[in-house]
């Protein structure tokens, strides 16, 4: 299966924040996909997933380097990328505004053509494991498993999940909600959620929002209308933070001293939230990743969250 980035990658706005995708980059992703298929344990799934992010303002090389890891992951797995290149409202409120705009656009499409899920990623995130599909974090559903990597056609239908009531997967850190990375189902519930987030500062001006739109999202998710379909999952699933320098991540032989939320080999992503030398950290990690071998091929995985994910969803009644 081949991918045309002109079809898979979409930039919104007049500025050019989407980097050029060279034939060599596409070829490298094709080679990586073959490696993932051979060495990793993941079954790619059929979900129509979009990676959504924003890269407006002054272009900075380290953010472009981080963005390339997401573009590469998209090519490996056949997902779409939507990037906001120009602001449409003020400051950090562009994030919910852009997501809401995207949701409206998707919901106008026929159901079989629209995205099923979006994964929002802040621009200070890097993919660590290019083999893990985004769909691996989602609750089990009928019809999603099996594609060009592996097929699970023999899986019993009754083990493929109940009628789904999960529409949002988020994580928390010591400050509460961190919405630097989250997974959102594309539906009318999502439109209502992001309408409420975007409007919150206007209809509840007395509420302190120390982290602007993130705090508004946290407040809205506490309400009866939205809390029941939101799942707070362990932070290290898809929003791990740095647990030391890049080379230490690559070289360490054990996990001594690492907290649960800190990245280790086998994790999906690292997020440099609040890092005081973000530019240098991203450069160092990108350089290290470019020189590293595949952790699955080299049997160097320190943490595979797949059993934990399966247990989590089974505990909520999914997956038999």
Automatic annotation (TrEMBL):
Lineage start:
Eukaryota, Fungi, Dikarya, Ascomycota, Pezizomycotina
Tell me the protein's name.
Glycosyltransferase family 34 protein
Q: Which family does it belong to?
A: Belongs to the glycosyltransferase 34 family.
Q: Which PANTHER family match?
A: ALPHA-1,6-MANNOSYLTRANSFERASE MNN11-RELATED (PTHR31306), GLYCOSYLTRANSFERASE FAMILY 34 PROTEIN (PTHR31306:SF8)
Please give one Pfam family short name. Answer: Glyco_transf_34
A single GO CC term for this protein reads: Golgi membrane
Q: What UniProt keywords are attached to this protein's entry?
A: Glycosyltransferase, Transferase
- Drop me one GO molecular function for this one: glycosyltransferase activity
Q: Which GO terms describe its biological process?
A: protein N-linked glycosylation
């Amino acid at each position: 299966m081949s991918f045309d980035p002109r079809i898979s990658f979409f930039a919104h706005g007049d500025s050019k924040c989407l980097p050029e995708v060279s034939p060599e980059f596409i070829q490298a992703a094709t080679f990586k996909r073959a490696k993932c298929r051979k060495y990793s344990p993941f079954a790619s799934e059929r979900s129509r997933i979009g990676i959504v992010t924003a890269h407006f303002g002054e272009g900075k090389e380290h953010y472009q380097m981080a963005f390339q890891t997401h573009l590469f992951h998209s090519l490996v797995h056949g997902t779409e990328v939507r990037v906001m290149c120009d602001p449409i409202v003020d400051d950090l409120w562009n994030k919910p505004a852009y997501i809401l705009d995207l949701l409206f656009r998707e919901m106008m499409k026929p159901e079989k053509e629209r995205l099923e899920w979006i994964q929002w990623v802040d621009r200070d995130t890097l993919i660590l494991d290019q083999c893990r599909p985004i769909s691996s974090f989602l609750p089990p559903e009928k019809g999603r498993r099996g594609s060009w990597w592996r097929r699970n056609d023999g899986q019993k239908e009754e083990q493929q999940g109940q009628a789904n009531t999960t529409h949002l997967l988020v994580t928390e850190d010591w400050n509460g909600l961190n919405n630097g990375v989250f997974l959102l189902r594309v539906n009318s519930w999502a439109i209502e959620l992001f309408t409420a987030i975007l409007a919150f500062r206007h209809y509840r001006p007395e509420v302190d929002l120390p982290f602007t739109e993130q705090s508004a999202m946290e407040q809205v998710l506490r309400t009866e209308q939205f809390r029941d379909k939101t799942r707070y999952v362990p932070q290290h699933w898809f929003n791990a933070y740095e647990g030391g320098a890049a080379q230490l991540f690559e070289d360490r032989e054990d996990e001594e001293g690492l907290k649960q939320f800190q990245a280790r080999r086998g994790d999906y992503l690292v997020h440099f939230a609040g890092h005081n030398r973000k530019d240098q950290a991203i450069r160092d990690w990108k350089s290290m990743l470019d020189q590293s071998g595949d952790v699955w091929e080299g049997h160097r995985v320190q943490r595979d969250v797949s059993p934990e994910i399966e247990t989590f969803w089974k505990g909520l009644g999914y997956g038999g």
